[in-house]
Amino acid sequence: MLRSLGLIGCGKMAYALMKGIGGAEFLGFDSLLVNDIDPERGVLFQEEFNAVPTEAAEVLQSSRVIILAVKPQQVRMVLDANRALWTTEHLLISLAAGIKTGSYENEIGLHLPVVRVMPNTPCLVGQGVSAISPGRYATDKNLQLVAKMFEQLGTCVMVEEKHMDAITAISGSGPAYVFLVVESLMNAALQVGLDLKLARQLVVNTVKGSMEMMEQSGEHPAILREQVCSPGGTTIAGIRQLEENGLRRAFFQAVEKAYERSIELGKD
């Protein structure tokens, strides 16, 4: 049995995964074989995770578990270049947004075990959310291995694949929405006379505290929001302005567009 873990694509999410699990040895593999179009990324993984940079063909020939962490637009190129090397003994773990497990099965033309994962960037600090969905030929053992990987990076949930495009739009894209809200609050703080350092400290810790409060209390966010709003006070005046400027509508539309784009990526 081949005991190397294979990784094609050495971007930020692949880096977060390897950092989180502490290398291939954590999962019982003897070595980590990696491939990336940028040789410098391979060198980075060699230095930090004792990986062996090599050609994609060698990764497939020497590994049975393959993590495909390339951009969605690169998936077909990777599959086309190495189509004859895939076997039913492989497990393909896909991190590519929008690409369905059935697309891999049909493209390769085998009863290939595929597990689709949608992680997000807070995985880089061990606070991520990863959704996992099995293909038709993935076994419970396959799912246990994938869950073991991504549980090291934060929260891991098992879902039906029909929900993956929506999850991509929420937790996959969600950190960017949060960062934009934080950025906007920081800019607003500058507008009312606070310096940047103080604005960042206030906003970041306000968001952190609010999330912790919501998690610990278990209350619906609407109830917690109402608790901050005193009659005729400053907070309700600000909330009214946000509502009048369409904040809620903007989030609905943003999620809908991200959801539609995830579906489009699966068709390209």
UniProtKB/TrEMBL annotation:
Pfam families: F420_oxidored, P5CR_dimer. The keyword Amino-acid biosynthesis applies. Keywords: Amino-acid biosynthesis, Cytoplasm, NADP, Oxidoreductase, Proline biosynthesis. One of its GO terms (biological process) is L-proline biosynthetic process. It is an enzyme of class 1 (oxidoreductase). Residues 5-98 form the Pyrroline-5-carboxylate reductase catalytic N-terminal domain. Pathway: Amino-acid biosynthesis; L-proline biosynthesis; L-proline from L-glutamate 5-semialdehyde: step 1/1. The keyword Amino-acid biosynthesis applies. SUPFAM superfamilies: 6-phosphogluconate dehydrogenase C-terminal domain-like (SSF48179), NAD(P)-binding Rossmann-fold domains (SSF51735). NADP(+) binds at I8, G9, C10, G11, K12, M13, A69, V70, K71, P72. It is found in: Cytoplasm. Its EC number is 1.5.1.2. GO terms for cellular component: cytoplasm. It catalyses: L-proline + NADP(+) = (S)-1-pyrroline-5-carboxylate + NADPH + 2 H(+); L-proline + NAD(+) = (S)-1-pyrroline-5-carboxylate + NADH + 2 H(+). Its main location: cytoplasm. Transmembrane segments: none annotated. Residues 161-265 form the Pyrroline-5-carboxylate reductase dimerisation domain. GO terms for molecular function: pyrroline-5-carboxylate reductase activity. NCBIfam families: proC. Catalyzes the reduction of 1-pyrroline-5-carboxylate (PCA) to L-proline. Belongs to the pyrroline-5-carboxylate reductase family. This is Pyrroline-5-carboxylate reductase. It comes from Syntrophomonas wolfei subsp. wolfei (strain DSM 2245B / Goettingen). The gene is proC.
